[in-house]
């Protein structure tokens, strides 16, 4: 379905009876992070109370009708999603304003920002592309509003220069980024707290200390009289302290990180730490699946940030999470037993998903997935999730094709074990877990799933088509029409996606596979382009973007030569001689391999020069010709032998690619800091004149009369 593209101010109706929508705010590759929010407005254009603002610090409205689903990485940038249940919105809410904000920079720094309104199955309904943004740091991109009993979508694109706090304040939200006081509460007496007569309509004004930077007061709505318990002997001298907070906080709270405890009392290096999830006695495939599923579901329930990170991918609300193992369901005369059930409750909303798990080389089967979809539809559940070592080629894509009619009321999602490991690493090492026990539990879960016996190996098999395709390329007989080529190309795309997940978990930043937009959104076109490239050049190629790195990382698997090539382009300094520019690079490549190829590019039509790093280290002049043409860039390339086996560790293709990329990034890309020009310098005579004037001013008498 093609979305209706709206210009600023335009609107379009939603289909009659639409139960809800999913609103996605997406943007292209950018160093600026975008946050989505929604505000529930009455006919006055303002919120009813502070709970009507839904955003990262308050992810669900009071009635559960609007939910913040979190962020996700896409091949061409990032996105944040909001879910709106139109049927559960209160009657006095006539508009849901859809806003976006940036914590640093402005929307002029955000590339290709777009609002996309989809139905609950993800089919696009309407879109609005933001153009001409300048100094805005927050914007209402669009709104879902009620008109004559029907819902419509309008493109707004109204900006604020005061950030999310300014936008929220103008729409009636009380923002409390600076207000938080510790206020002593009365001692408990065992009697109801008395309210003076006539004070029921008043407010309490709490003054700040006199040494505050400026006179301030916090106005707090009075509470009804309440019974306070009489003090026990142990606390009769204690005066309670409560925190008075007015409004909501729009500032993001930095995560607190706790590392798992390190064992220090071992008598020798041979002492092995006890495992919470034992890998001993794992028998057949069924036992392996049950253990891995049980470990995952228990950890999701015990470590809330990890459980939330997993379920947020599938549109679940943020709330109480419970998980169950092998729950039986009757379907006609047969019994259907999914591997697990996940339930999340937030207010009146209960989200439920069935889980089907495979470990090792186990393959997902279409008929089994469709039977779970039937059960979920019959029970009124929200989703079916499949989990295996297979990685879907792209975000929101599923490796198994099912009857689309079964997806009318139930969504189907796929999760790979590589993504589970990625999420655990992100929570443990980057987002943070505040409790030491939870950190240890998550650490133990990682120890289990990363052990070969767990069966959660990640993507480690290029498939049956790999060896015939590789041999055909080497022999020069491969043709685009060969039926096995698409399978090999899809396996390469899955490998690149796993590589991005792995680097993201290790670096703590979103590493993306850079693709043209038409290929990022069209799986068939992506496969066709890969097939044509492989047939014509014998190469599988990918471009990885690491935020903050000096350049993108180009990865090429050359099946004709049996080599994995990794490369990056580094802009040269724009000042100094060519020799100084080369020295600038060499100093930063102190630990890079000696066989690294360094190619120097020059302005104009001057041909490039190329030498190995070991020679450049001893003779920088070998890269700089006698011509005076300025050196403009460096191309750094390394070539290593490619593994040939379809799976395994020693001599296998997948480990050889992963090792080549990680080594190249760690030893070549990571150490290089981009060149930054010095600040413009004032002429020396101007500086001297200003200094002389300042000195003369200091010598003048107070009255200004000269002696």
Characterization of this structure:
The structure is a single chain. By secondary structure, this protein is α+β, with helices and mostly antiparallel strands. It folds into three domains: 167 residues, sav2460 like domains (Lipoxygenase-1), CATH 2.60.60.30; 170 residues, no CATH class; 199 residues, no CATH class. Helix content is 25%, strand content 26%. The chain has a seven-stranded antiparallel sheet with strand order 24-25-26-27-30-28-29. Strands 1-10-9-3-7-6 form a six-stranded mixed sheet, with no helix packed on it. The chain has a six-stranded antiparallel sheet with strand order 2-12-11-8-4-5. Strand 21, helix 4 and strand 22 form a beta-alpha-beta unit. Helix 2 packs antiparallel against helix 6 and helix 5 runs parallel beside helix 8.
Give me some keywords for this one.
alpha+beta; six-stranded mixed sheet; 3 domains; seven-stranded antiparallel sheet; 707 residues; 30 strands; globular; disordered C terminus; 25% helix; Lipoxygenase-1
**Radius of gyration based on Cα positions:** 31 Å
Low-confidence regions? 179-245, 697-707
Tell me the strand percentage band.
25-35%
List the strand order in the largest sheet.
Answer: 24-25-26-27-30-28-29
Helix-strand makeup class: alpha+beta
Give the end-to-end Cα distance, rounded to a whole number of Å: 87 Å
The best one-word shape is globular
Main sheet overview: 7 strands, antiparallel
Q: Count the strands?
A: 30
Number of helix segments?
A: 14
Arithmetic mean pLDDT: 81
């Amino acid at each position: 379905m093609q979305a209706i593209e709206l210009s600023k101010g335009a609107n379009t109706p939603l289909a009659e009876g639409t139960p809800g929508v999913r609103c996605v705010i997406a943007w292209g590759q950018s160093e600026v992070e975008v946050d989505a929010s929604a505000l529930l407005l009455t006919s006055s254009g303002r919120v009813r109370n502070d709970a009507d603002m839904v955003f990262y610090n308050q992810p669900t409205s009071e009635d559960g009708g609007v939910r913040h689903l979190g962020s996700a990485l896409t091949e061409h940038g990032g996105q944040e999603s909001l879910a709106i249940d139109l049927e559960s919105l209160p009657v006095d809410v006539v508009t849901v304003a859809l806003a976006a904000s940036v914590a640093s920079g402005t929307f002029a720094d955000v590339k290709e920002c777009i609002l996309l309104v989809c139905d609950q199955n993800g089919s696009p309904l309407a879109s609005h592309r933001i153009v001409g943004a300048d100094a805005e740091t927050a914007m209402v991109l669009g709104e879902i509003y009620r008109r004559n009993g029907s819902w419509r979508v309008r493109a707004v694109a109204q900006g604020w220069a005061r950030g999310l706090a300014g936008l929220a304040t103008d729409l009636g939200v009380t923002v409390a980024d600076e207000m938080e006081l510790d206020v002593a509460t009365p001692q408990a007496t065992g009697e109801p707290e008395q309210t003076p007569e006539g004070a029921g309509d008043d407010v309490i004004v709490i003054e700040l200390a006199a040494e505050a930077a400026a006179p301030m007061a916090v106005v707090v709505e009075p509470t009804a009289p309440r019974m306070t318990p009489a003090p026990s002997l142990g606390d009769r001298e204690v005066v309670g302290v409560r925190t008075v907070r007015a409004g909501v906080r729009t500032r993001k709270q930095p995560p607190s990180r706790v590392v798992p405890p390190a064992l220090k009392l071992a008598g020798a290096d041979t002492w092995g730490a006890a495992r919470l999830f034992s890998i001993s006695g794992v028998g057949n495939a069924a036992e392996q699946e049950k253990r891995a599923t049980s470990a995952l579901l228990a950890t999701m329930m015990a470590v809330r940030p990890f459980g939330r990170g997993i379920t947020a991918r599938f549109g679940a609300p943020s709330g109480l999470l419970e998980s169950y193992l092998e729950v039986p369901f009757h379907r006609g005369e047969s019994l259907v037993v999914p591997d697990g059930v996940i339930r999340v409750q937030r207010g009146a909303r209960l989200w439920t998903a069935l889980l089907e798990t495979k470990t090792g080389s186990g393959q997902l089967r279409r008929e089994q997935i469709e039977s779970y979809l039937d059960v979920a539809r019959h029970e009124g559940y929200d989703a079916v999730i499949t989990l295996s070592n297979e990685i879907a080629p792209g975000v929101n894509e599923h490796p198994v094709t099912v009857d689309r009619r079964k997806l009318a009321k139930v969504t189907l999602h796929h999760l790979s074990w590589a993504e589970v490991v990625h999420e655990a690493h992100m929570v443990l090492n980057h987002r943070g877990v505040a409790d030491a026990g939870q950190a240890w539990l998550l650490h133990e879960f990682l120890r289990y799933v990363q052990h070969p016996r767990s069966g959660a190996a990640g993507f480690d098999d290029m498939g049956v088509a790999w060896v015939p395709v590789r041999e055909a390329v080497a022999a020069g007989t491969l043709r685009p029409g060969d039926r096995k080529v698409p399978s090999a190309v899809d396996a390469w795309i899955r490998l690149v996606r796993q590589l991005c997940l792995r680097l993201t978990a290790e670096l703590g930043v979103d590493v993306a596979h850079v693709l043209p937009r038409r290929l990022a959104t069209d799986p068939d076109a992506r496969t066709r382009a890969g097939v044509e490239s492989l047939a014509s050049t014998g190469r599988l190629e990918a471009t990885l973007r690491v935020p903050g790195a000096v350049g993108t990382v180009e990865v090429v698997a050359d099946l004709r030569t049996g080599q994995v090539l990794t490369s990056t382009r580094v802009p040269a300094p724009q000042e100094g001689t060519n020799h100084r520019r080369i020295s600038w690079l060499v100093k930063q490549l102190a630990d890079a391999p000696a066989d690294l190829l360094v190619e120097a590019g020059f302005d104009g039509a001057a041909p490039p020069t190329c030498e190995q790093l070991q020679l450049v280290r001893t003779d920088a002049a070998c890269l700089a010709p006698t011509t005076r043409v300025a050196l403009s860039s460096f191309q750094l390339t390394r070539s290593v032998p490619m593994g040939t086996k379809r799976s395994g560790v020693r001599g296998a293709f997948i480990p050889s690619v992963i090792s080549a990329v990680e080594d190249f990034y760690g030893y070549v890309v990571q150490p290089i800091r981009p060149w930054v020009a010095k600040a413009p310098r004032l002429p020396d005579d101007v500086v001297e004149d200003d200094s002389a004037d300042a000195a003369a001013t200091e010598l003048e008498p107070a009255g200004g009369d000269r002696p």
